[in-house]
Design goal:
The protein is mainly beta. The protein is 0% helix and 54% strand. It has no helices and eleven strands.
């Protein structure tokens, strides 16, 4: 059984930065994919970014491309989402997702609020 624990959310001013972490317990196989999704009030959950655990290749939503960077530390089984140049529209609950073979695991979410 895999468990995901997110951390790093909080309140930040527009233009500021935050780094989210997603720590996974259990085994992460080389074919796994870790992703970040977010859900703002009254909106559906949307894709933010993903990383292929073995090769480290990444993919981003257009809305965050050039501002967010997804990296991982294989030894710590942890993924990091560095969020720069934050905007008010980035305000949401951010969820970590880990896909292993045919199964998907979700974290509990962490709140990110961008406001002056």
């Amino acid at each position: 059984q895999v468990q995901l624990v997110e951390s790093g959310g909080g309140l930040v001013q527009p233009g500021g930065s935050l780094r989210l972490s997603c720590a996974a317990s259990g085994n992460i196989f080389s074919g796994s994919v870790m992703g970040w999704y977010r859900q703002a009030p009254g909106k559906e959950r949307e894709f933010v970014a993903l990383i292929n655990w073995s090769g480290g290749t990444t993919n981003y939503a257009d809305s965050v491309k050039g501002r967010f960077i997804f990296s991982r530390d294989n030894a710590k089984n942890t993924g990091y989402l560095q969020m720069n140049s934050l905007k008010s529209e980035d305000t949401a609950v951010y969820y970590c997702r880990l896909g292993i073979l045919t199964r998907a695991y979700w974290g509990q979410g962490t709140q990110v609020t961008v406001s002056s």
